[in-house]
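Hi P.,

Sorry for the delay on this. The queue was packed all week, but I finally got your sequence through. Input first:
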Amino acid sequence: MRLLIRCIGAFSLLGNIAASDVGDRDETSVDLARLQGVWKTVEIVSGDERIQTAFLEKLTVSGTRATFESYDEGRAYANVTMNAEANPKEIDFRGGMELNEDFFLHYCGIYSIDGNRLRLSFNRAGGNRPDSFETKGRNKSIWTLNNQRPC
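Then the structure:
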């Protein structure tokens, strides 16, 4: 019985330590943890029109490494950096294509994570970082993805 009480006390203490660690983490670390997993494309809007979701089938994030997969273009890999303190929150992807060493990928955008829904917005021409998720009449795109499973 004493052993059981000690075990319960130890687990309770560990639970409190883990909870306080989460509370002490900065918002960017929390968002990076929420970004982990496999995200399936639901919709891509560019300017005033919807784009075929085949452009990006899914996005997989593990740690700070992202893999973009399309049905016909293959895979691109990128390092992820985020700034959750900015308003709107900022995200950058920098990397390259699996089968094309000359291809360099750099998406400089904004993001929002709401439960299992991820929204990303980027300027199409590779210009300045967007300042909102509004696309009408603008030269930018918004990707909406749903989390399929955490890593």
